[in-house]
Amino acid sequence: MVRLFPWLWLLVFVCACGSQGPSPADIAGHAAKVYYDRLLQGHYDQFVDGRYQPDSIPASYRDQLIANMQMFMGQQRQEHGGLREVRYVSATADTARHVAQVYLLFVYGDKTTEQVLVPMVEHKGVWYMR
Predict the structure, then answer these.
(1) Which residues, 6 or more positions from 85, have their beta carbon under 8 angstroms from its beta carbon?
(2) What pLDDT digit, counting tens, does each position of 58-80 carry?
């Protein structure tokens, strides 16, 4: 029983810490990663839909944004052998202002990496790229 007591406190401590759930910064970070994963998979429209637009945008403008993402990915293929992976590095969030700064790491086909800052904004409980 004496040996069990310290482990019991450790278990209680771990459970208490784990019950808080993910932080708003982590939620924003994982949302940014999901948007960029969709871009990697060729779902340019879903990536564009992950951008915060306070008002609806004309279909022609949305089509231009999608075409820009296709050109961006083509450029990355030419210059770096393509964008192969996106990793979530870290994030900070200001919950009072509903904004976050997310750091992602781009891993290219030529093995180079680049750290990218993705500003995020929370609107009605959903994190969007700004």
Answers:
(1) 40, 106, 107
(2) 999 999 999 999 999 999 999 99
